[in-house]
Amino acid sequence: MSAASQQITAIRIRDLDFAYNGTPILEGVSLEIMARDSLCIVGPNGGGKTTLLKLILGLLKPNRGEIEVLGQTPEKSRLRIGYVPQYARYDPQFPVTVLDVVLMGRLDRIFCGAYAKADHEAAQAALAEMDLADLAGRLFAEISGGQRQRVLIARALAAEGELLILDEPTANIDAASEEHLFELLAKLNERLTVMLVTHDVGFASKFFKSIVCVNRQVVLHPTSELTGELIRNMYGGDIRMIRHDHRCSPEGHCNHGIS
Fold first, then answer.
1. Residues 91-128: pLDDT tens digits?
2. DSSP state, 63?
3. Which domains does the chain have, with CATH numbers?
4. 3-class SS at 145?
């Protein structure tokens, strides 16, 4: 990774507040994420993790503050983001193939109601990158949970974006599939900024550079290999410990990258 690429900001949030029906969800959020960073987002249920993702995606608007994604407003940058939602709703009786699902990532590019050769090439390349090229013709409903999750990531990759956001992609897969998934995400991180919401940082901390703690406020740290009471008490889960270094002031948490 070049020094120049490290200086490019992928996401910049300043002084953001957001409330649902008058109930504060996020308050005073300032955060700066550099291009090709990799982050896992943790925090208790209801702490604001999914809300933060929706704000970055432009699906919600803040009550106060600014969000810039890939140098633009979230609405304008949306087609440059690959998004994998927490739950994929599908009819298991509907005969959609793995390739059909991945091609959905190209829907914004089709003309005259048909996929072009470039769309099929992008979809096949995304499947190959997720080690799924041999499953292209299989029915989506017939493959395993871990394979389905990788298909959904391939769908996001087919859009050829610069930022990949995943909302709890490991929720319903086994440990072996989870480790394989993180290894693939680490490779993708060589060219993409990767953000992942998770309750299990056991594997994630081996592959991700930073951890974002979300519980109404947002704090960013580098990851470490140790578990600890601090995170369990603050965010309600037995997950990897974070270390307090240059990103934190002696008085407590400070917001990374914000002057």
1. 677 889 999 999 999 988 777 778 999 999 999 999 99
2. S
3. 3-94+163-253 (3.40.50.300)
4. helix
